[in-house]
Task: structure prediction
Amino acid sequence: MESPHALLELILDTVPQPVWVVDHAGELVFANPAAVAVLGYDDFAELKGKPSHQTVHHHRPDGSVYPAEQCPLLRPRMSGESVRCDDDWFFRRDGSMIPIAWRSAPLELPDGRGAVVAFVDTTERRAAEQALRERDAARIRAAESRATGRRIMESATAVRRQLARNLHDGAQQQLVSLLLELRLIREELGTDPARARRLLDEAAEHTQRAIDELRELASGIHPAALASRGLVSALKALAARSALPVLVTGAVEVELTEGLEACAYFFVAEALTNAVKHSHASHVVVTVTAREPQFTVEVHDDGVGGAAPGGSGSGLAGLADRVDALDGQFTIDSPVGGPTLLVAEFPL
Result:
């Protein structure tokens, strides 16, 4: 029958769990084959008698020196307590690092108290955890994208309904009246030319009103000023119509797509609406910066702050959706008491 000591050595040589033992001075006096292999050595003789900390634990992952007196792994030699760490790093023989989890417990040796350390390479576990995080992140992004798309579709539907109502109640009524007037003029031409001329003057006036109303509706879809004068000029025209004093600054040094220009225009329009309705601001500053590799729009007001994307009636969720639809990033800084800064950033 084998002695307990021989049986223990046989067990330690067989188990896949890396194990080593350090003496009271912190020097390696034993390492099983699993520990030798994980650390990249060929034989324990290459490790025997070496200070464990200076051999495998001498630096932190960021490259800074890791003093031995700060290392908890060897603490059981002095305190008699057991210690564990699930997120640490060891150095291999070739200088590469491996992520590990370890347990260290006091061990009474003939020449004083040492420590027995069992550890495991956590590379595969970390990879699995990272894969799970990436999968969860992908699911979250997909869910957010679906929610964004749904809100955009709902918003577009609401806009179409409003546009249809505006056309029906406004320009369409003007055009129907105009048609009736033209028919009446045709009937009066032969019998009462003077009245026909008066009716023609009225019809011309009604035609102009219909044209103006159609232009106003069209500007809500895609402002004509964007195509004719560019983004900064269009924003200045928008600012001139605001109920608050608005200063527009910045420059566009690269060519922007129509989609980006329209997004920036309506981003500012909605932000100004929010400032008028909710912020109690006295003035607003709009800053546009477009140079490679980024296009940035900032809207800064001196109001009471406290704006949040989920706030009731704030419209900030719509701003975020509009920016996200073009792969942009929307951020808001609005502490209670103010000021409020809305930022939309787009990659070029």
In short: The chain has ten helices and ten strands.
